[in-house]
Specification:
Blueprint: H1 8-35, H2 49-63, H3 69-79, H4 87-94, H5 96-109, H6 114-135, H7 140-162, H8 177-194, H9 201-210, H10 218-240, H11 245-266, H12 272-301
Helix pairs in contact: 1-5, 1-10, 2-3, 2-11, 3-12, 4-10, 4-11, 5-10, 5-11, 6-8, 6-10, 7-12, 8-9, 9-10
């Protein structure tokens, strides 16, 4: 009697189809906007060296477990790569192809109970769908406030990781009953928050550890959840036109080789020094973002 089909095959198929649809929609959106003469907000010409470099660096360390949203937000803000209100959509769209590759790698090599994995992925996607619909319609200053708070939260999670102030976790590879329901509810919230720039890597690591799963189990869950929710959220940002084409392309072009190098050549690094650097940059960017929000609010009131 032949073995049953690995359920991961269905996940891989669904993820490939979803990603292909996003890329097709992205191509159509970019072509239509270019034909209509849209050239501002980072739309004209190929990605710059800086935009490609941001894609490479953030996805390289993303693959090793640092996360990419807070560093990308910070680097975009520091150089004013795209308008602040377009940063969430740019990240959601541009980071999708590299993150999908990460998901394929980690889901393939790390074993997690299929029911647990699928449940948490679906919860994160539903949260992202609702969150992206809200964020894509928010005024500029509210997005700036949200991203400023997101960066502060990210800085705290980096400090917690540096000092290893997190739950140790257990050996379980899956959840059931109340624990699974709680974890799914948390993933729903994290999926919604990710659309405004709050990365889910560190929170997911903490959640699965508190529930008794091994910390390594967080990788296929957080990579898989991101890979599924980002195309879903990206479609809503595409529809609203809230992203920067050049910067998004830079994230993709720089990010894909970075993921492959980190996953198959480097594999691991002593990351605490890099985390401290990220903390400093993220805190500085958070201050700039919140200051911009205050200025934007005053201008609107005036």
């Amino acid at each position: 009697m032949s073995d049953s089909l690995d359920p991961r095959v269905f996940l891989f198929t669904a993820l490939a189809l979803l990603t292909a649809y996003l890329l097709f929609a992205w191509y159509r959106s970019a072509t239509a906007a270019t034909r209509a003469g849209r050239t501002g907000d980072g739309w004209s010409g190929p990605p710059s060296f800086y935009e490609n470099a941001v894609g490479f660096v953030t996805n390289f360390f993303d693959t090793l477990g640092i996360g990419s949203f807070a560093p990308t937000t910070s680097l975009f803000k520091l150089k004013q790569v795209v308008p602040d209100e377009n940063i969430p959509g740019t990240m959601m769209i541009g980071h999708t192809p590299p993150v999908v590759i990460q998901a394929f790698i980690f889901i393939a090599i790390i074993s997690v109970d299929p029911v647990t994995l699928v449940t948490m992925l679906v919860a994160a996607v539903l949260g992202a769908w609702l969150g992206a619909g809200v964020v894509a319609k928010l005024p500029r200053y509210k997005i700036q406030v949200g991203m400023g708070i997101a960066l502060l939260i990210a800085a705290v999670t980096f400090v917690l990781a540096i000092f290893e102030i997190t739950a140790v976790g257990g050996e379980a590879t899956g959840l059931s009953g109340a624990n699974l329901a709680i974890a799914a509810a948390v993933m729903f919230v994290l999926g919604a928050l990710m659309t405004i720039g709050i990365g889910m890597y560190a929170p997911t690591m903490i959640v699965v550890s508190l529930m008794g799963m091994g910390p390594v189990a967080a990788f296929p869950i957080m990579m898989g959840a991101s890979a599924f929710l980002m195309p879903v959220a990206g479609l809503r940002f595409l529809k609203a036109g809230r992203y920067g084409l050049k910067a998004a392309l830079g994230l993709t072009i720089g990010g894909i080789p970075a993921v492959l190098i980190a996953a198959f050549i480097v594999r691991s690094l002593p990351l605490n020094a890099m985390r401290w650097l990220v903390v400093v940059v993220v805190l500085y960017a958070a201050i700039l973002m919140l200051r911009s929000a205050v200025q934007e609010r005053r201008a609107a009131a005036g």
